[in-house]
UniProtKB/TrEMBL annotation:
Record's function text: Required for rescue of stalled ribosomes mediated by trans-translation. Binds to transfer-messenger RNA (tmRNA), required for stable association of tmRNA with ribosomes. tmRNA and SmpB together mimic tRNA shape, replacing the anticodon stem-loop with SmpB. tmRNA is encoded by the ssrA gene; the 2 termini fold to resemble tRNA(Ala) and it encodes a 'tag peptide', a short internal open reading frame. During trans-translation Ala-aminoacylated tmRNA acts like a tRNA, entering the A-site of stalled ribosomes, displacing the stalled mRNA.
PANTHER family: SSRA-BINDING PROTEIN (PTHR30308:SF2), TMRNA-BINDING COMPONENT OF TRANS-TRANSLATION TAGGING COMPLEX (PTHR30308)
Protein name (database record): SsrA-binding protein
Keywords assigned by UniProt, alphabetized: Cytoplasm, RNA-binding
Similarity remark: Belongs to the SmpB family.
Phylogenetic classification of the source organism: Bacteria, Bacillati, Bacillota, Clostridia, Lachnospirales
Length: 154
């Protein structure tokens, strides 16, 4: 089997700013037909969403999929809780890590892998304010260095 095409639908840049991402997992997502059509048109947001494990099942809350224009009565609630599909051993492994202090699950991106919709979720630890400041300072320094480099090479 060849390399499957990956088409990004939604990205959660805020997650990388607010958390240290320790580990990432790929999960399938249980959707209805009109939701998939909406995703094909790129109408999805995971900015304010979060992932939770309940009774050994993984769910994503706050993921917004805009209603499909031609969907009429078949459209589901855009903010409904969606079930993520993962292997039992992965869920158990994640549950063990979450039991540790300070870990949480955040969705990082939503994408098509071939014809399937996948969600990349990250095992994350929250950043403190000073960590965020350090990151911003590093970015500023890198940007400044790139600017100087460009000026010298002209």
């Amino acid at each position: 089997m060849g390399a499957e095409s990956i088409k990004l639908i939604a990205n959660n840049k805020k997650a990388y700013h607010d958390y240290f991402i320790e580990d990432t997992y790929e999960a399938g997502i249980s959707l209805h037909g009109t939701e998939v059509k909406s995703l094909r048109m790129g109408k999805c947001s995971v900015k304010e969403s979060f992932v939770r494990i309940e009774n050994g099942e993984v769910f994503i809350y706050g993921m917004h999929i805009s209603p499909y224009e031609k969907g009429n009565i078949f459209n589901k609630d855009p903010m409904r809780v969606k079930k993520l599909l993962m292997h039992r051993y992965e869920i158990n492994k994640i549950e063990g890590k979450i039991a540790e202090k300070g870990y949480t699950l955040v969705p990082l991106k939503v994408y098509f892998k071939g014809s399937l919709v996948k969600v990349s979720i990250g095992l994350a630890k929250g950043k403190k304010l000073y960590d965020k400041r350090q990151d911003i300072a590093k970015k500023d320094m890198r940007r400044e260095a790139e600017r100087e480099f460009k000026v010298r090479n002209l």
